[in-house]
Specification:
The complex is a heterodimer.
Chain A (H helix, E strand, L loop, with lengths): L6 E4 L3 H6 L1 H13 L3 E3 L9 H5 L3 H15 L4 E4 L2 H14 L4 H12 L1 E3 H8 L8 E8 L3 H7 L3 H7 L3 E5 L15 H4 L1 H18 L3 E4 L2 H13 L5 E4 H5 L33
Parallel strand pairs in A: 1-2, 1-3, 3-4, 5-6, 5-7, 7-8
Chain B lengths: L8 H9 L2 H11 L5 H7 L4 H17 L1 H14 L3 E5 L2 H14 L4 E4 L3 H5 L2 H7 L3 E4 L2 H9 L15 H11 L9 H18 L2 E4 L3 E3 L4 E6 L3 H7 L3 E7 L3 E2 L2 H16 L6 E5 L13 E7 L22 H4 L2 H6 L10 H12 L1 H4 L11 H5 L6 H14 L5 H14 L2 H19 L4 E2 L6 H4 L4 E2 L6 H9 L3
Parallel strand pairs in B: 1-10, 2-3, 2-4, 4-7, 5-8, 7-10
Antiparallel strand pairs in B: 5-6, 6-9, 11-12
The chains are: A alpha/beta, B alpha/beta.
Chain lengths: 274, 471
């Protein structure tokens, strides 16, 4: 008799769903390789974090209730993001501190929710992957994954098993890249300063690719790297671990060499790097 | 009161980012100014236990605040001191000036006091004809320059040694000397030393007020606080009610975490207790000892989420590790208290309507909370202010409607799927082949300095439906 495989509900996250479906497929591949079945509940939207961090608590609770109801039938909930995973795991219970029945459901969901890479290593005991990636990479520790979910050693452990890959540690890998959800729109100048410090650090490692576990940070770093004219690619760590590191990187043209498109006037000057 | 410009945080921050002199000074702290894991905490294996103990004793004290305040006051009086209870900043200013007038004072030697900044003491003293002399090196420098502290423990951190050499040349009336730190310190010491003897009043803050003995304790590295409180004939302690601890042992427990997290030291150089006035037979000490005890909105935080902020020991670890603070410096906050702790405490001092940008000036990266020795959940407390701002409809309209529209969709999966399908399609049409967009009509904040990666293809869920079918 074969043991029944755990059922994983994939929480795709809105950014992966909209901008980088490859990360979703990479996550599915990795979770299946770790001996689970994967389902993608159709009715999922977002974890509610943008509302939560904007102070819209009532909206957040409404969204959280829908997420809880949709995902509670699964053995595990896995998100390819420390930020969205952290929202469910670290913040949903707090959100319902004053509603005992929902609080209990939020606690139960939180207990079985995991960020993808820590799920693979800590829950499923994955020690390595069967993937190849030729070149030097550096790794940025996204804030929520690092500080809310203790994601630090797990991605490094799996990256060490990728054939051809050399990891060059990023000085200040634990410092925020300046994305911060709505922060990058509310305070774009400070956000730019922070991401410019980050891209300078990334460039100083000499690695050709920066990896991270959160698409928000990656889009921010990728967008700044390309504006600065730095030939450094950005990818979600899951893509590399799933052996999908040969696809166009984040923000990379499918036709190499095309300049970025503008929706309205003015020329794009390459930004000065700090 | 110093001009508070928290409302203009964004404009202030743009100015700060473009200020080459300030950015040079901030480069000195850009890399970890106190290496938290290494020097401060790594060498103390029992740090976590000590931190838990410090948090527990602060919580216990706050839960019994009335008892400990009362005990403290009785013991101050028993040791020949005087206590002045002050609800608001104005009462504290008046109490201090009244003591000065009664003593016929002209000058005041001041140890570093953030509560003094909070009540705008210097300007008030000057208006009353008194001369305050800041004796902390950083405070001494910024007093000459007419500036406010940009940092709670390192008030002149926004300056380089070259700036200080310029300031000294101008205010000490001599030719510009080389910007060498030991020489600058020696010069300040030489200028300040006689002032302690001349001062009629010595005023210090307090790191701790000790209930069991009625003592105040100050922690410094320069010794200026000691001279300020010992040499003049009258010593005034200006402190807020959250500085109370039950016993001397408790003060030392918290002082151990404070030194580690504040400056990376095992212990600060001077740790000085003051108890009462000089007794018959004492060789030194002030003739009069006053404690001006300020509430200024703190007791109103009791029983709310913000109560946790009353555990703050002003170590500045949150400032020292904040990437936002390190990008713009303290003055951009336009407030007395800066960085993450300032973003939390300022709305309770001046009102969320005037301070709304500050709790929003965080990416919620969580470093502040992770380094806080008192376990204060700073991001959660900033979020608490954002929630109050949102509830009172004070959040900017664009943000409210943006979040509102988005939340409306996020609660309606079928509509959300259609809207995102359409959005992805539009972005693909515009920038898909190039992989990124250099400009977006509603996303200038992003695209002014960053390209915006275009969606790869159809949404994940649409592709999943096609490839894996109805799961």
């Amino acid at each position: 008799m074969t043991e029944k495989k755990p059922r994983v509900g994939l929480f795709v996250t809105c950014l992966v769903d909209l901008f980088r479906p490859s990360v979703g497929f990479a996550a599915v591949k990795l979770i299946e390789r770790a001996g689970c079945t994967v389902e993608v509940p159709e009715a999922q939207t977002c974890c509610g974090q943008p509302a939560y961090n904007s102070g819209a608590r009532q909206h957040t609770k409404d969204i959280a209730r829908a997420v809880i109801a949709l995902f509670e039938p699964f053995d595990y909930v896995v998100a390819p993001s420390g930020s969205c995973g952290g929202m469910i795991k670290a913040h949903y219970p707090d959100l319902f501190a004053d509603e005992p029945s929902w609080h209990a459901r939020a606690e139960k969901l939180a207990a079985k929710t995991h960020e993808l890479i820590s799920f693979l290593v800590d829950v499923r005991g994955l020690a390595g992957v069967d993937a190849r990636f030729d070149g030097a990479v550096t790794y940025h520790d996204s804030c929520s994954g690092l500080r809310e979910l203790n994601v630090h050693g797990q991605p490094r452990k799996l990256l060490a098993s990728v054939t051809g890959l050399a990891l060059k540690e990023l000085p200040g890998a634990h410092i925020c890249c300046g994305f911060g959800g709505t922060f990058c729109i509310k305070y774009p100048e400070i956000s730019t300063r922070m991401v410019s410090d980050k891209t300078a650090d990334i460039a100083a490692t000499g690695a050709g690719t920066v990896l991270a576990g959160d698409l928000g940070c990656l889009m921010n770093m990728a967008g700044r790297l390309s504006r600065e004219g730095r030939p450094i690619k950005a990818r979600h760590v899951a893509e590399v671990l799933a052996g999908m590191g040969d696809r166009p990187a984040i923000g990379e043209p499918s036709v190499p060499g095309s300049p970025p498109m503008r929706l309205h006037g003015g020329a794009v000057a390459p930004a000065k790097s700090r | 009161m110093p001009a508070l410009t928290s409302e203009n945080f964004r404009a202030n921050s743009v100015k700060a980012l473009g200020n080459a002199q300030l950015q040079r000074a901030l480069d000195n702290i850009r890399r970890d100014f106190v290496d938290f894991k290494g020097r401060a905490v790594g060498e103390l294996p029992e740090y976590d236990a000590l931190k838990r103990e410090a948090i527990a004793l602060k919580n216990h004290t706050l839960e019994n605040l009335d008892f400990y305040l009362d005990t403290f006051a009785k013991n101050v009086e028993a040791s020949g001191g005087h206590i002045h209870w002050c609800q608001a900043a104005g009462e504290a200013r008046e109490a201090i000036v009244a003591i000065c007038k009664k003593r016929g004072a002209k000058t005041m030697a001041k140890g570093k006091s953030m509560v003094g900044e909070e009540i705008g003491l210097n300007a008030y003293l000057e208006a009353a004809g008194l001369t305050p002399i800041e004796t902390d090196l950083g405070e001494y420098i910024i007093q000459m320059r007419g500036e406010t502290p940009s940092h709670i423990t390192a008030p002149a951190i926004h300056l380089t040694k070259e700036d200080v050499a310029d300031t000294f040349a101008e205010h000490h009336n001599h030719a510009r000397r080389p910007a060498e730190i030991p020489a600058l310190i020696a010069e300040a010491r030489e200028m300040l030393r006689p002032r302690y003897h001349e001062a009629d009043i010595g005023l210090t803050g307090a790191n701790f007020l000790i209930a069991e003995t009625g003592s105040s304790m100050i922690i410094t590295n320069e010794g200026n606080g000691d001279l300020s409180q010992i040499l003049p004939r009258t010593h005034i302690v200006l402190a807020s009610i959250d500085k109370i601890v039950p016993t001397i042992e408790d003060a030392l427990t918290v002082a151990r975490v404070l030194a580690r997290t504040s400056s990376g030291q095992e212990f600060t150089v001077y740790n000085t207790f003051s108890t009462g006035a000089r007794r018959p037979g004492d060789l030194d000490g002030p003739e009069e000892f006053h404690v001006v005890l300020l509430d200024n909105g703190r007791s109103a935080l009791m029983g709310t989420k913000q109560q946790a902020m009353l555990r703050c020991i002003r170590c500045a670890a949150c400032l020292n590790h904040c990437p936002v603070y390190k990008s713009v410096g303290g003055h951009a906050y336009g407030a007395v208290y800066t960085g993450p702790m300032g973003a939390v405490i300022t709305p309770s001092l001046i009102g969320i309507d005037k301070a709304a940008p500050l709790p929003n000036a965080s990416t919620f990266c969580g470093r502040c909370e992770s380094v806080c020795p008192m376990g204060i959940p700073l991001p959660a407390l900033m979020r608490d202010w954002r929630e109050r701002e949102y509830e009172r409809a004070e959040a900017p309209a664009a943000l409210r409607s943006g979040i509102g529209v988005w939340a409306y969709l996020a609660k309606r999966p079928a509509l959300y799927a259609r809207a995102t399908w359409l959005g992805v399609k539009a972005l693909r049409v515009i920038g898909g082949r190039r992989g990124r967009l250099a400009s977006l009509p509603l996303g200038q904040g992003w695209t002014a300095t960053r390209d915006f990666p275009a969606p790869e293809g159809a949404t994940f869920r649409a592709q999943w439906r096609r490839t894996r079918g109805a799961a």
